[in-house]
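MODEL INPUT / OUTPUT PAIR
PAIR INDEX: 1
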Amino acid sequence: MQGRKQFQPKLMYQVCLDDLVPQDNFYRILHRELDLNFLYQSTKHFYSTEGQESIDPVVFFKICLVGYLNNINYDRKLMQYCANEIAFRPGIKTSTYGGHIPKPEKIPQVHH
């Protein structure tokens, strides 16, 4: 007898990003093995003590690294890729963004 599953969408789902990304995922391994905490001290003198808080330098470097590894040359395309790539999000969970990708306006314009 042929079975048929009736999909009943729920109002709320409890989902953990860590459960959705496999342990052997490239980005998960990269974020686990690559310690970028030295960037806080190295970039400290570039930041003012006044004004709007900037993007976390570690998150910024990780986003740039994703752009380099995926050959993405445009800021908005890179931000769209990072927002859509669920495997990238657990790598920035330790930042002040709580796993959210910063908006493109917060990313400094880097011209090559």
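PAIR INDEX: 2
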Amino acid sequence: MLDYPGAPGEEQARAGNRTRIVQEFGRAVRGVGNLVQLRASLVETVVALGFDYVVLHGVDGAIWLADLPPNWRMPRAGSRTDAILAAASSCYAPFLWSDIPRLIALSDAQRDCLNET
């Protein structure tokens, strides 16, 4: 069960709102004709859910769609220094970047990467 701060009634309202947002996204993407439209719809949904950025990647870690901060730099191929991508490859639920140290054991290089972002 998701843990939302606030009064008990607020928890249900927030969960219902998030469900509605995800359902709207599902309806919207049925009509997209290209990756630009899909990315725009995904970013709009992620922002509506309260997240600032999104990375959608495949099982192999290859990034399919992303909306990342301007100062974020793409790691070299095969690099495991990017804490965000390392966490994303091991966590299938949305997460806050501040949660990454709790989700994975950070190497020194990953900690540096996270601090720079």
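PAIR 2 NOTE: The CA atoms of residues 34 and 40 lie 10 Å apart.
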